[in-house]
Amino acid sequence: QQSELNSFLWTIKRDPPSYFFGTIHVPYTRVWDFIPDNSKKAFQQSHIVYFELDLTEPYTISALTSCQLLPHGENLQDVLPHDIYRRLKQHLEYVKLMMPSWMTPDQRGKGLYADYLFNAIAGNWERKRPVWVMLMVNSLTEVNIKSRGTPVLDLYLAQEAERLSKQTGAVEEVEEQCHPLNGLNFSQV
Where are the domains of the chain? Predict the structure, then answer.
């Protein structure tokens, strides 16, 4: 069936079968209805599930946060040209001002507040490496803010695996993701 051809699911034919499923880092609600049944069935039938990173593990989140920081106590102001730093600071002030109007009633009903959300996303931004600040700024849009509080597909599947008592693991360590990004020089960023 055509619906199964475009599923991002690859099968390794062995007994029992193994599967590779390609995910994207978007709120699962944006894509869940378009994931074909064969992919959902493969997930349901699997006893062991490996993810890119183990996003349910507190160490993973802590290590991701730490790897984003500039070394030796440096601040972004120390490494960015003055004009870029000033424009970035003004933009973040604008985002913080706009964020309450970007939030949905559903988010507010779940107890999410604009100040809390801004700090969760942009907190400690002055200590982050430029590449991570760039990624952060790209995520600070009205559309992305409206979807905050909904797990990305990877995290949703990890939470489901945990809920269903599946054995889980990760195929990468945090350092394998951090070091390549942290290795980019300023002109590449």
Answer: 2-183
